[in-house]
Amino acid sequence: LIKAFSVALIFHLNAKGGHHQIRRNQPNFQEQIYAELQAEMLDVFEDEKDNDFVQICGWFRCSGTNVPLGITIMMRDIISQNKSGNEQHLSVYNRELDLHVQKLVASLGGCERIQKTPIPTCFTRHTSRLIFMWSTLLPFAIYPACGPFFTVPSTLAITYSILGLEDIGVQIEEPFNILPLRQYSDGVYDGVDFIRTVTNAK
After folding, report:
1. What is the mean pLDDT of residues 117-121?
2. Residue 128 Cα to chain centre, angstroms
3. Residue 28 above 80 pLDDT?
4. Do 101 and 79 meet the contact criterion of CB atoms below 8 Å apart?
5. What is the 3-state secondary structure (H, E, C) of the chain?
6. In this structure, how many other beta carbons lie within 10 angstroms of the beta carbon of residue 176?
């Protein structure tokens, strides 16, 4: 389920699930995204008849469902049903596991706050207008220093740099579209597989 959580979180924060070759304007966009999610979940569960696999894919089909949050609920159900091990330490282990699940929920909430708190539109509009006015007046300001030959190239270079900074700022408003979420997910995969290998070797 930890692997499934990392996959579900990518699709929850990024409408394309990190598959940038899929275009939103395609008529079967949602079906393609669902097929990608289903394929990735199948890599996790390795059995398309697994109850958890069926339930998670069903949640994704329902519009507005918070799939990562649902997976954390499944984790807590498993922890509450855990009766194996030394009874003296069992409650301590289960409490610690539950605390880790709570941290996952807190991380999910933090990501959602970042995603759902965009920069006000008026700020972006005002910045664009200000940069346009500044770029228009820039040649008059640098003409005495640059002369007739270097004014235009200097203006183009400076304006290009400033517009690049503005574009970076717009992208930072939606960081989950540019962050390497797939690499983070692969790191979780490798960590879980390593823990499983070490545990099975004992």
Report:
1. 73
2. 27
3. no
4. yes
5. CHHHHHHHHHHHHCCCCCCCCCCCCCCCHHHHHHHHHHHHHHHHHCCCCCHHHHHHHHHHHCCCCCHHHHHHHHHHHHHHCCCCCCHHHHHHHHHHHHHHHHHHHHHHHHHHHHHCCCCCHHHHHHHHHHHHHHHHHHHHHHHHHHHHHHHHHHHHHHHHHHHHHHHHHHHHCCHHHCCCHHHHHHHHHHHHHHHHHHHHHC
6. 16
